[in-house]
């Protein structure tokens, strides 16, 4: 065995043992540093061990590490303290998603809807892949988790912000996916440049969500359609003095990085004993007591919709949320269905009436199947409901994915019209079907 390989074998063993021992101790300095990399005490341990072993080799054998040896050990250490073989992909700014279907097959999801096949196996076999994920679960998450036969599903937020999901036993081969947040700071101007929407639609949405009387907005679309990205851009329009409460399954909005007054909370899974779980329903219900000017829910998935609807109707104007749906009408119907699962909701007809009064705008997003570009397909207002059926009216609509987002009409709903007062300078004040 070469000197470099011998030294690295000892360093790796000591560093892995050290990280496992200190994973639950936030004072250890293992968290992410300002540049995104963590492992402060592990790096110090590695440096001390390398220096000691090299000095011993010099005394006993007259051997020293070459520059190439040092570079190789540094690379191995970065892989160990980072995300191992995944780190090379997480360091790329064009990678948005990583999917691994077992130890030998994988694909990258790139910006613009492109894909790239991962060349070569990342792990020798299933056992090595499972061991790697288990190591990440213990040492790289915000809190230590398990990934083994008794806990075969893992949902983890890495210290550097990426979202990881892994599975074993319940599938033929181990599975892993990582979602990267490449656009934490995004503006409406950025979305105009990307073709997501036009200037008139951007001006309308900005006016609708700004104080002093902002509208309540529901953003819908399929998985990966750009809902969270649009939500981040709209949050950039809130007032600097507003107190905002953001609630998420896993932190993805990062509003606290740009806004001074944010209460940001995420759900918590139960520990290994099945205790300590805090779900989205409880977070959303408690948000009504925060006194926040706005309540922002990263994604509505269940009974928390009832508390969100209550927030929209009890003074938290400008509240926003995303929901999976293929049209504005379906988004509202799904919102009502989620409310009904709370167990304390009124009859469906009453919920439809309430939702039609307090949800002012529904924005539908979709990905162009040809180019992969994420675009706004529809911006619709809600009208007073007739019985238990929602009435929506399109204000902006893109008739085909690669077509223009046409301005069809000015707001008609009293709840929205009183919040949006166009001026002669507003490009959206006069409908023009061919405006982009």
Short description:
The protein is of the alpha/beta class and 436 residues long.
Key structural traits:
436 residues; alpha/beta; Beta-Lactamase; Rossmann fold; 3 domains; nine-stranded mixed sheet; six-stranded antiparallel sheet; 34% helix; elongated
Structure description:
The chain has helices at residues 3-22, 40-61, 67-81, 87-90, 126-139, 188-194, 199-209, 227-235, 280-287, 304-313, 328-340, 348-358, 414-417; strands at 95-101, 106-110, 115-117, 153-157, 163-167, 175-179, 217-221, 244-248, 262-266, 294-300, 320-324, 361-367, 374-386, 389-398, 405-407. It has 436 residues and is α/β, with parallel strands linked by helices. It folds into three domains: 1-81, no CATH class; 85-182, Beta-Lactamase, CATH 3.30.450; 188-417, P-loop containing nucleotide triphosphate hydrolases (Rossmann fold). Strand 4 and strand 5 (163-167) form a beta hairpin. The protein is elongated and about 85 Å long.
CATH class of the largest domain: Alpha Beta
Q: Architecture of the largest domain, according to CATH?
A: 3-Layer(aba) Sandwich
Number of domains: 3
How large is the share of residues in beta strands? 15-25%
Q: CATH homologous superfamily name of the largest domain?
A: P-loop containing nucleotide triphosphate hydrolases
DSSP helical segment count: 13
Whole-number average pLDDT?
A: 84
CA gyration radius, whole angstroms: 25 Å
> How many strands, what sense, and barrel or not for the largest sheet?
9 strands, mixed
Q: What's the oligomerization state?
A: single chain
Structural class: alpha/beta
Please name the CATH topology of the largest domain: Rossmann fold
Strand order of the largest sheet: 9-8-10-11-7-12-13-14-15
Give, in order, the helices and strands: HHHHEEEHEEEHHEHEEHEHEHHEEEEH
Shape: elongated
């Amino acid at each position: 065995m070469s000197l470099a390989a011998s030294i690295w074998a000892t360093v790796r063993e000591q560093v892995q043992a050290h990280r496992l021992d200190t994973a639950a101790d936030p004072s250890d300095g293992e968290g992410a540093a300002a540049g995104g990399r963590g492992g402060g005490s592990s790096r110090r341990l590695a440096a001390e061990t390398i220096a000691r072993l090299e000095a011993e080799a010099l005394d006993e054998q007259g051997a020293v590490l070459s520059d190439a040896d040092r570079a190789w050990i540094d690379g191995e250490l970065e892989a160990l303290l980072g995300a191992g073989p995944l780190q090379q992909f997480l360091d790329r700014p064009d990678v948005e998603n990583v999917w691994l279907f077992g130890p030998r097959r994988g694909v990258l999801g790139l910006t613009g809807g492109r894909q790239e096949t991962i060349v070569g196996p990342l792990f020798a076999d299933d056992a090595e892949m499972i061991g790697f994920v288990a190591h990440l679960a213990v040492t790289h998450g915000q809190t230590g988790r398990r990934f083994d036969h008794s806990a075969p599903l893992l949902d983890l937020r890495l210290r550097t912000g990426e979202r990881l999901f892994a599975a074993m036993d319940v599938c033929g081969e181990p599975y892993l996916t990582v979602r990267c947040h490449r656009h934490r700071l995004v503006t409406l101007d950025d979305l105009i440049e990307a073709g997501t929407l036009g200037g008139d639609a951007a001006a309308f949405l900005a006016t609708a969500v700004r104080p002093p009387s902002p509208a309540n907005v529901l953003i819908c679309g399929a998985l990966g359609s750009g809902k969270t990205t649009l939500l981040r851009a709209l949050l950039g329009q809130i007032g600097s003095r507003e107190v905002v409460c953001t609630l998420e399954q896993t932190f993805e909005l990062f509003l606290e990085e740009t806004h001074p007054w944010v209460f940001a909370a995420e759900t918590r899974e139960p520990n290994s004993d099945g205790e300590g779980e805090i779900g989205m329903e409880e977070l959303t219900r408690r948000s009504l007591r925060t006194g926040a000017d706005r309540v922002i829910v990263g994604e509505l998935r269940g009974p928390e919709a009832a508390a969100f609807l209550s927030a929209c109707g009890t003074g938290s104007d400008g509240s926003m949320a995303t929901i999976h749906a293929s049209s504005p009408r379906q988004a509202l119907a799904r919102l009502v269905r989620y409310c009904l699962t709370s167990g304390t909701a009124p009859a469906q007809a009453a919920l439809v009436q309430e939702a039609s009064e307090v949800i002012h705008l529904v924005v539908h997003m979709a990905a162009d199947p040809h180019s992969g570009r994420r675009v706004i397909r529809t911006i619709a207002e809600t009208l007073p409901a007739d019985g238990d059926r929602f009435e929506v009216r399109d204000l902006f609509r893109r008739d085909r994915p690669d077509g223009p987002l046409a301005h069809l009409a000015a707001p008609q709903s009293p709840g929205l019209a009183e919040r949006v007062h166009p001026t002669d300078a507003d490009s959206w004040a006069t409908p023009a079907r061919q405006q982009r």
